[in-house]
Each structure stands twice: as C-alpha cells, then as structure tokens.
C-alpha cells in the first residue's frame, strides 16, 4: 500500500496527460513505465534475506547474516571473496544509486537525462574528474596490483548481481529514466573516490579572491580574509612542539599575483560539507575505556549516502558505514580500533594563467613554448548528437577556462593544479584501516591517503587516542595559491610536498581528548604555510569547551553532544545588536519580535522562534554589510562569517558598513535596525502564510531523492533542530549523514544512526525507516557479530555459493 501511494504521488507530479508512449524531454515513456509486465509494478518491496545465491568467481562460500535493520553481516574466508560479496550486496540494495553517482562524477548525466545536463557534464570533464580517475587506475597498475585486484573483485560482485536481473527487475529509477545498468569497472570505483574528493577538496576561491584583491586593495583584503582569526582553537592543540620537523618551508620567490578579471567560475561543492569527530581517553571516560565519535556532514539524500555493513574474514572483522562504490568500511571500527573522518579543508587547488601560441598547440613556460596535451571529451546526449569538448592540458593540469568555456580570451586560459589529479591509492587506506590492530597500523594505513585531506580520528582497545591531519600537501611558499599565479613562471609550481611524517598530528594529548570540526588545523607556530581556506569557527569551540567542562564523559554525554543545538554564533552577536540598536522606531508588531529574540537562550530547538528571527536578521544584515561585493560580471566570494561579526562589533564605522545605494553614511548600529525591520517584515509574511515561524517549519529539513524532481521518493518536514555552525549541523538539506559512537571495550560496542535506510527501493520499509529516530536523536545498537557466534539478532541468513559448486 505504501508503494502504491508513492506511485500515485509520483504520477501527480509528472502528470498522466503526457502521450503514453512518447519520450518528452526528461519524462519517460509513461506507457512503458506503467506496463504491468515490466514496468514499475514489477518492483518488489521485500528484500531477500535467506537462501542460496550462486555467484561465479567465488573461492568459498560467503555467509551473510541480516539483522532487523537490514544490515548485512558478511563472513568470507578470504579478502577476494569478501569484496566480491560487498559489491554484490551493495548492488542488490543500492544499484541505481551506486551507478548514478559515477555518471555524475564522470560528467555523463546527459546520457540519461538529456541536454539539460550538458553544462554540468562539461564542467566535470573540464574539472578533470575522468582524468583523475584514470591517473588513480594507472598508479595502482604500476604500484599496487593487489588493491586493484580487490577493486576488480568488487566490480565482479556488482556485475554478478546485474547479470541476474531481468529488465522488469531493474530499480524504479532506471524505468523512470528509460535506461539500463551497464557493466561495473574498476574505473567506476575510482570515479566514486574522485567524486568524494571533489565534494570535500574540490572547493577553492583563488580566482574570486584575486578579483577581491584587485577591487579592494591589499589592506582591505587582509582585513576581510585574515590567515588566522583572533580566536583560534585548532585541531592540533596549541602547545604542540614542532621542533622535530627538519624540512623547511619553501622559500618565498619574487612572484606577484596576476590580477586578471575573472567573470565566472565553475560550481563549488556545498560550503557546509564538513563533519565532527572526537575521542576521549580512558582516563577521561566514565568506564575507563576510550570512546570515539564521528558524524560526517553531507547532503541529506535518499537513497542515503551511507550503507552500513559488517565485513569479516578470519584475519579481520570490521563494521561501519560504507559508501556505495568503495570497498571496505569508511567510518567504523574493528575488534581493535575505531576511526572516523572530518574534512580538513586544506588548500590543494591552485590556478595558473596560461598564455598560448597562435594555434593553441603550445603554452609559454620558463621562456619557452611547451606542447599542450589534448583530451577530447565525447559527451553523449540522450536523443541528440554527441557533443565534443576539447580540453587542453598543461603540466599544471586541465585548462578549465578558455575561449570555449566561460571565457572570451582567444589566446589565454586558466589551468587548475589539483591534488585530485595526482593519482594514488586512497582505497588502500581503508583496506588497511579495516585490518589495523593498533596505533602503528593506523599510521601505516594513512600513508596511502592523498586526497581529500581528512582529519582521521583514532581510538584503540589498547587505550590510545590520536588524530592525524592526513593528505598529500604541497610545501608552499608563504602566500602561494591564495591568488591566481603566472603559469609561465616555474617558481610558482609546487616545488615539493610536506613529508607525511610532518603532517600535523597528536597522540594521547595531556588534555585527554582529541577533536576536529573543520576548524583551522594548527596555530601559527606550525612551520608550514596553511592558508585560511574558510575554516569553521563555532562548532569546534563548543565541542572543545564541552570536553574541558568536566573530568569524565560517557556514551550518553557523546549522544548529547551530537545533538547539541547551541548557537554560539548567534550568542556572540545578538546581545551586542540588541544593546546597540535604536528601538525607538519599532512598530508594535516589530516590538513583539524584538522581545521574542531577546528572550531566546540561543538553542536552535524545533519549537523555538529565536532561530528563525536570527536567520532572517543576520541574513539581511550580512547582505547589507557586503553590498560592495554585488558587482556584475565579476566572480566574488563574500568574507567569512566570523570576520564579519568581528568587524560589526569592533569596527562598526568602517566604510564597508555604508550602504552603497543610499545618500546617508550608515554604521553597524544603523544596519542592525534596518536589517531587523526587513527581517520582521518577512517574518510577519511567513506567519500569515504558515501560521507561525517556529524553527521546525521555518527551516523545513528534508531528505530529497537524488533525482531532485521526485517528491514522492523524498521525505519533507523532518522535525529536527540545529543548523549550520551548530554541532547538530542540520540545515534544510544538509547535516549529520552518519552518527557513530564506539566504546573501546573488547570487542568494541557501538551505536549509530543515519538519515535514510538500508534499501534504495522507495517502496521498501527499509528505505527511510531510520529518519525518525535520527531526527529525535536516537541511536540503534550496532550488532557486532563474532565468527561462529549465534544470536537472536539475526532475522535471516543468505549463503553466497561458488557457481561451480551448484
């Protein structure tokens, strides 16, 4: 019945008046979609969790136990079979999502949705996503055939599932878009990892900051975009001794920024992609065991980003969240250690101005002309001719912007240097973490990780806690990569990399805890250049203050902190605004709103109105302050929130406070009132439209299907508090995508939850069944099975059997 309701809701969305067997734009041939023999009605809602399945290529039987949450607990006799089984089971439950993500990563969406996706596809091709995946495969072929072999095993497992499917059994999205799954290859796994690299290390503002430097001058730029804020509580504690580092920072050359005007830049990843993680030592734990927590902040999508599994062989036993398309557990634990990640947001993208010769076959470098490399991107478009985009490559990387893309300069281009193009073997880090037994194994696993830069938190049953900021980082000269650079000058190249052993890290700190929340990694004593790439400034202080507030912490304390709704950002500005704002001109209705925000205790709980007032008020204020950045045909990024509030409180008469389009000269005090009145006007409109402006309805958190136009397959009005910059970082469509807490007992005990469900089938009861518990701050016990141990938690067992044993 649930699935029928979903289908009817969908039909209302697309409209049944379309010609039944005609493909119109992105709308499928509805007659085929509704065909009773192979259309949507054939999609099953019950998942198979018992019996034998015969798969070619297995060496031994693989046992798969399912618990009541549809979590598969996989027991294989060797790693090859384990990853073949992981591929098979991931495809079984998440096939469409698994494949769709790699279409998006490769810039192939036009193949399935038509020419409306062409600009997106061109952007991803010019970003070098496919090139980066090719480099990773080439690296593994040369340096690590074992890992590449496991990736092929995973692909074989995915393909074993696809081969068993008849067209009527395809997931509903294939029928909706009228296409079919294709063979999975190791490159698709490489593309998935590139997609994660883009999401977490694909953002930069070098070109936007170049524009700001040219428009506003160096003094103003340094005021608005400082390398360090006045309050810095870094990932690695300030008292860390760096005297062991004996490789110096690259010397500063005689180099100047290139102050070209950049009119348009490619889309950036979501600015709130980040996470929280922390661990306390046994001495700081109520039970004497270390405890670790992780909650990655990503898009709230359905099917959910994560798929939870247990992956076991006689040599290791790991449990946690996996990403469809990648091998092993990404955020989780085994019998000896636990680990998790947050985004380190290091600046690993630089831009270079390129000068071409007359026919664009060469580019200037070090006084000579060097050959460009040409990569022709053939972009297939559903129902149209293939689009060919010629992308030029220099030794820096792809020329993203040239006369054929977002630029009108005939013999000029802008090339991207990105660590994501370097190749490498990121997958091996997780393969090794899944097997790690102690701190040394954890450090050994991290050496393979290039990008995206991550803060890897660690705890062990031996009692150690640690945190490494891991990635392959260029050893930059002071200021390198903040602005556009001259690509013809070799001194602007990345001269070397920071040796991995000198990456910032801490083990068993005196304070008894480690934590990261995307804040600045280090303070100014760290001997390498680290640019302020928009580091977080609020969640991290709430977390660190919490762990400094008492001597012992429990799992319940961890749960409370995951779900903490305290709005530190608002608490640091609202009282100041209330104190300094002239209220004499407020209307009766505005005074009511004023009293509501005055009474607010700065918790973004669902029934509060204070968060809604704050959101409206600060948004209006922020735009008023930075109206100077509203410049047509020039790409600009606005200053960071923390620095904005600092200026409002400490430099309220600065010329940036003046509104450009008025004759008066406004100060911060004037802006407080003007912004409040505009906010009040909008809040009263919302009240008229919706009845109130409580936070739960104002924010309207939802988990949207990946095909954004499918409300029937989405969840709306999820009752959860929080917001960006809050530990519970849940905004409209973004937030904690996986909450995990692990206590390092022997073996570890853990709880977890994520906003979705194990199934990718919108008609399944397992599609979104975790969302309500997630929103309420509840957790599920993660049932960590031990080999050959019986338990009532298992509701079904399936055996994957080698096909030659039939």
UniProtKB/TrEMBL annotation:
<dbReference type="InterPro" id="IPR002692">
    <property type="entry name" value="S45"/>
</dbReference>
<dbReference type="Pfam" id="PF01804">
    <property type="entry name" value="Penicil_amidase"/>
</dbReference>
<dbReference type="GO" id="GO:0017000">
    <property type="term" value="P:antibiotic biosynthetic process"/>
</dbReference>
<dbReference type="InterPro" id="IPR014395">
    <property type="entry name" value="Pen/GL7ACA/AHL_acylase"/>
</dbReference>
<protein>
    <submittedName>
        <fullName>Penicillin acylase family protein</fullName>
    </submittedName>
</protein>
<dbReference type="GO" id="GO:0016787">
    <property type="term" value="F:hydrolase activity"/>
</dbReference>
